[in-house]
Amino acid sequence: MHLDQVHAWLTDFPGALVEITGGEPLLQEAVYPLMHQLLGVKREVLLETGGGVAIERVPTEVGIILDVKTPDSRMAEQNDWENLTLLKQRQQAGSRDEVKFVLSSLKDVDWALDIVHQYRLTELVPVLFSPVIDQLSPALLADVILQEQLPIRLQMQLHTRIWPDIARGV
């Protein structure tokens, strides 16, 4: 879809929030003018990114949901750790970003908690822990969050509940 087509389609949904996601949006050069165009027509814009591409070009007015890849995802080496430093700069400029960890095991949970503490993420942005349903019990993850007494939100992956029979990959 071209930018003009996206804008035309959105006219049918005035005032609707726009979340840019799917694959890694920041690998698409067209995402940058799209974000600026959406902001120009006063849309609320969110961007969900896998965290492996620098976020420095994302406008401060766009809320970033930064997915920090965990060891069990086999993608942790793709994390661009500078992004966590950039989140601090964005927060100081008034952005409304979040950090999300999709967790498959207690090993992932311990690793994520180390990252949360190391970067002091809960002092910076909302932090979300999301269990991979068939690998980590949501109740167990909730217990860990409560035990840690950190302001971490438990987030369920709704697509696993809405479309449980459709396999999705990363």
Describe the structure.
The protein has 170 residues and is an alpha/beta fold. The chain has a single domain (3-158), classed as Aldolase class I (TIM Barrel, Alpha-Beta Barrel). Helices cover 34% and strands 16% of the residues. The protein contains 6 helices and 6 strands, in the order αβαββαβαβαβα. The chain has helices at residues 3-10, 31-40, 82-92, 106-118, 138-148, 158-162, and strands spanning 18-20, 45-49, 63-68, 98-103, 127-131, 152-154. A 6-stranded parallel beta sheet has the order 1-2-3-4-5-6, with helices on one face. The relative contact order is 0.10.
CATH topology: TIM Barrel
Spans of at least 5 consecutive residues with low confidence: none
Estimate the strand proportion.
Answer: 15-25%
**How would you sum up the global shape?**
globular
Secondary-structure-derived class:
alpha/beta
Number of structurally distinct domains: 1
User: How do the strands of the widest beta sheet line up side by side?
Assistant: 1-2-3-4-5-6
Distance from first to last alpha carbon: 22 Å
Main β-sheet description = 6 strands, parallel
CATH level-four homologous superfamily name: Aldolase class I
Rg calculated over all Cα atoms: 17 Å
The helix/strand order is HEHEEHEHEHEH
Helix content: 25-40%
Please count the beta strands (DSSP E, at least 2 residues each): 6
Q: What is the architecture at the second tier of CATH?
A: Alpha-Beta Barrel
Output the CATH class name. Answer: Alpha Beta
The average pLDDT score comes to 90
Please count the helical segments. Answer: 6
How is the secondary structure organized here?
Blueprint lengths: L2 H8 L7 E3 L10 H10 L4 E5 L13 E6 L13 H11 L5 E6 L2 H13 L8 E5 L6 H11 L3 E3 L3 H5 L8
Parallel strand pairs: 1-2, 2-3, 3-4, 4-5, 5-6
